[in-house]
Design a protein that fits this description.
The protein is of the alpha+beta class and about 250 residues long. Helix content is about 30%, strand content about 25%. It contains four helices and 15 strands.
């Protein structure tokens, strides 16, 4: 069942989203060779506590950390570690913020120092695909319009779209209906109506879209060992177009 939010509820989610956006801007400031993803995780948990917010995914089905930190070939749900990041690594930090019971979800990928040309293209295409999907999040469109636009752009650029993980509705629960695939056919799926709140979160691989899951039962990585990146926003469907609740101040590109 799709839960439509009121304007007041969306504003509560936007308040959570503003904290989450601020966290990502701080991560961008501190990330560098030598820092560990556990350093980042501890920073995030402390930052959220100072802002009166809670890291929602900590404890979710037993997940032990405030963030997911996925490095290089890790697609998602990577565990933070004490291993220092190296020049040229790429890392995705994904988190869900709970503020007064309302949630916001956003992942962002970062290059560590100077990255390779291929890695930079992957970062750029993945981010652009997110905003292309957001542009399709209009009242009257369907979920498939978002999915098809992302897939077409990504594949035109020679990359692949992960099939195993999708975007989703969100509100007081982390995962609500509808699911939002990042591949598919335009004109299909649930119709978008005012008050729906969704995540769009394309995970894009340099090689094959196929993945495998580590023995920890959480961390997904590319089957071929090639790089993967992800960008994610939470957004509300409004009569005036999509409202990005986790906006970091970037314009639609």
């Amino acid at each position: 069942m799709i839960i439509v939010k009121t304007e007041e509820e969306i504003l509560k989610m936007k308040a959570a989203g503003e904290i989450l956006a601020d966290v990502h801007k701080e991560i961008k400031r501190i990330i560098r060779p030598g820092i560990t993803t556990m350093d980042i995780d501890r920073f995030v948990e402390q930052y959220l506590e100072q802002r009166g917010a809670i890291p929602e995914q900590k404890g979710y089905h037993g997940y032990p950390y405030a963030t997911c930190a996925s490095v290089n070939d890790e697609v998602c749900h990577g565990f933070p570690s004490e291993k220092p990041l190296n020049e040229g690594d790429i890392v995705t930090i994904d988190m869900v913020v709970n503020l007064d019971g309302w949630l916001a979800d956003s992942a962002w990928s970062y290059g560590v120092g100077k990255v390779s040309e291929d890695a930079q293209k992957l970062l750029d295409v993945t981010k652009k695909s997110l905003y292309i999907g957001i542009e399709k999040a209009q009242v009257g469109n369907r979920i498939g319009d978002i999915s098809a636009a992302i897939q077409a752009f990504v594949e035109e650029n020679g990359f692949s779209v992960v099939r195993d993980f999708v975007g989703h509705g969100i509100g007081k629960s982390m995962h609500e209906d509808p699911q939002v695939p990042h591949y598919g056919t335009a004109g299909r799926g649930a119709r978008l109506v005012e008050g729906m709140v969704l995540t769009i979160e394309p995970m894009i691989n340099i090689g094959s879209w196929k993945i495998k899951v580590d023995d920890n039962k959480w961390t997904a990585r590319t089957l071929d060992g090639k790089l993967s990146t992800q960008y994610e926003h939470t957004l509300a469907i409004t009569k005036d177009g999509p409202m990005i609740l986790t906006d970091q101040g970037e314009e639609l590109e």
